[in-house]
Amino acid sequence: xxxxxxxxxxLLLHTPLLRRLVDGRVxxxxxxxxxxxxxxxxxxxxxVLVNAREAARDPWWTAFRCPAPVHVWLAGERRYGxxxxxxxxxxxxxxxxxxxxxxxxxxxVAGTDIFxxxxxxxxxxxxxxxxxxxxxxxxxxxxxxxxxxxxxxx
Length: 154
Known about the structure:
Blueprint: H1 7-13, E1 26-31, E2 34-40, E3 42-43, E4 47-52, E5 68-74, E6 77-86, H2 93-103, E7 114-120, H3 134-141
Antiparallel strand pairs: 1-2, 1-5, 3-4, 4-7, 5-6, 6-7
Region (Disordered): 125-154
């Protein structure tokens, strides 16, 4: 996928009033090796499907040959999950193709297309059930420090 042609939607994703122009079609992935990569997606509720078109030319999907953590900027929220690449002939590819093709009929999905299936964590939005900032708690667990003065301060 040519990410340079999607640069304007990446900027629109983070502008609340303009986000509705791309919501439901474009999300942003952040994973090991890439930051802020805009992609077309289909959401099935607990999963996000991304078609890695032109996989040979832009092999970003190889980071998901084994399940790997990913952050998804989706509908104005950062969500967390694990992505895995699904190639033609593997379990789940045909189902992913049908779901993706139903949402985006043009251009048709080719047999060489690879899907990245992202399973979102159950409680992966910014806020946790206890009202604290989940990002801050996650950073604390990983040993990263953030400035004090916002929600989640201990």
